[in-house]
Write a structure and sequence with these properties.
Elements: H1 2-15, H2 58-73, H3 75-80, H4 86-90, H5 97-105, H6 107-113, H7 117-123, H8 128-138, H9 154-169, H10 179-189, H11 192-206, H12 216-232, H13 234-242, H14 251-256, H15 265-278, H16 281-295, H17 298-301, H18 307-315, H19 324-333, E1 337-340, H20 367-370, E2 373-376, H21 384-417, E3 434-437, H22 443-446, E4 464-467
Antiparallel strand pairs: 1-2, 3-4
Helix pairs in contact: 6-11, 7-9, 8-9, 9-10, 9-11, 10-11, 12-13, 12-16, 15-16, 15-19, 16-18, 16-19
Length: about 475
């Protein structure tokens, strides 16, 4: 009953949520407390300021809510038709996220197939080793959110039960510290059972291998991110290579926590809307934009003289650049990298096979499963001097081609003007002229008796042969 009452309060609070703008460049200690509408996310406004600047009209919000309500009421039919990612890119209405996220990631279907499974996992004692680790991390998850202020509050206790249930469900993986903030964000929007199955889908379908003890997928994707950064922002890539700033120093927190510890909370929710719709490639796009904003210009690199300064620059991007609408537009517009993760995102919105009832053996991990197919845009255009040389070479090639054609045409005209040589008369000087006459056939042999012979022809008998 208490869980249902809490869920109703969260949904009622989400209905009044305003997609605000995170204010920028102010010191935390000097911020003034804001109004009640800025507390829609449950964060203490003096530490997490939100502004109503850029708020969409109420009519537009209601229109989007009605559209998503219609889609979620006929979800299978909507998914059977052409799926439009643009709806998620515009942002899911705050009042609909509790209903849309489980449908998008497949958590709702998993929960329907495993009715009562979460209660069974919740009542299991669990591994004492994992329970001790989870207990140490609980107070670190959104300490300024009203749900997680008190150690005895329903937020921390619910998060403890959710993470313990996951360690029982997947004992071979256990608990990863980065799962704490992910589970906390899910728990802010939906009941614990739905949040649990959404966490399972994110860990197994969207980010397989991320939360394993070896974290093979994170290591691999870090190298992929560096390769993409080299093509998208060469200046930042050279700076990071110069100061030996490896991808694991900044990408690990971004990808494992889904940016929940890095960006303003409204922007995090917009990223999650797109991530649950399109898959892990969204994490790469967001990361590339962050590096470009922090290290993409010479002015920003002037103060970065080492590893510490570079990492601090990545953490201190001006908040005005991280406002949700501005930032997501930058992700879609400026990043010219198209990532087709054929192995991860294939059949993302198709019905999935039923997971095993028990923990079962660990899922097979093969590096080929995590290797993405990357398609990048062509390299940037060459410098001005190189383009000038290429134009001159092209002109010279055209001139030589025209000269060759002109010579061929002139040769053809000259050949047509020349007359064929006349027939030469035989040279008969000093030679003897002989005339030989073939014997004439008789009239009887020709079968024409009484007829006079006609004029001699070449093939006739009296034809004279002349030779020398």
């Amino acid at each position: 009953m208490r869980m249902q009452r809490r869920h109703k309060e969260e949904v009622r609070g989400n209905e009044t949520e305003v997609e605000g703008v995170h204010q920028g460049d102010k010191e935390m200690g000097g911020m003034e407390a804001l109004g009640e509408e800025e507390m829609a996310f449950g964060l203490i406004p003096i530490l997490f300021p939100l502004s109503s600047l850029g708020q969409p009209p109420v009519e537009l919000i209601r229109h989007r809510e009605a559209r998503w309500l219609e889609m979620t009421s006929h979800w299978e039919k909507a998914m059977a038709r052409r799926y439009k990612k643009v709806l998620c890119r515009k942002g899911i209405p705050s009042s609909m996220r509790a209903r849309c996220w489980p449908l998008l990631c497949g958590g709702q279907s998993s929960m329907d197939r495993n009715l009562g499974k979460y209660k069974e996992l919740e009542q299991s004692p669990g591994d004492p080793q994992w329970l001790e680790t989870i207990e140490k991390d609980i107070h670190r998850q959104f300490p300024f959110h009203e749900m997680f202020l008190s150690p005895e509050g329903h937020g921390q206790r619910g998060l403890m039960q959710l993470l313990k249930a996951y360690t029982v469900y997947r004992p071979h993986e256990g608990y990863c510290q980065a799962q704490g903030p992910v589970a906390a964000v899910l728990l802010m929007h939906m009941p614990a059972e739905q949040a649990f199955w959404c966490l399972v889908q994110i860990s197994e379908r969207y980010l397989p291998g991320y939360y394993s003890p070896e974290m093979e997928a994170v290591l691999l994707d870090g190298e992929v991110f560096v390769a993409l950064l080299r093509r998208v922002c060469p200046k930042a890539y050279k700076h990071l290579q110069k100061h030996s700033v490896g991808p694991l120093l900044y990408v690990t927190e971004w990808f494992l926590c889904l940016y929940s510890r890095t960006l303003p909370f409204p922007t995090v929710l917009r990223i999650w809307d797109t991530f649950l719709s399109e898959g892990v490639k969204v994490l790469f796009r967001v990361g590339l934009v962050l590096v470009r904003l922090a290290l993409g210009s010479s002015e920003n690199l002037r103060d970065c003289t080492g590893v510490v300064e570079t990492l601090e620059k990545l953490r201190s991007i001006p908040a005005r650049l991280l406002q949700e609408d501005t930032f997501m537009a930058e992700v879609r517009r400026r990043v010219g990298t198209r990532l087709g993760f054929c192995c991860r995102d294939r059949n993302l919105h198709q019905p999935q096979a039923q997971p095993p009832a028990g923990p079962g053996p660990p899922p097979l991990f093969t590096p080929a499963f995590l290797i993405p197919e990357i398609v990048v845009d062509p390299p940037p255009p060459p410098p001005k001097e190189q383009r000038r040389l290429e134009r001159e070479q092209l002109k010279e090639q055209r001139r030589q081609e025209q000269e060759r054609r002109r010579q061929e045409e002139a040769a053809e005209k000259q050949a047509r003007k020349k007359k064929p040589p006349g027939r030469k008369k035989p040279d008969t000087r000093g030679k003897t002229f002989h005339v030989a006459q073939r014997p004439m056939l008789s009239l009887a042999q020709e079968g024409r008796e009484g007829e006079e012979p006609g004029p001699a022809k070449r093939n006739s008998a009296p034809y004279l042969e002349t030779y020398f």
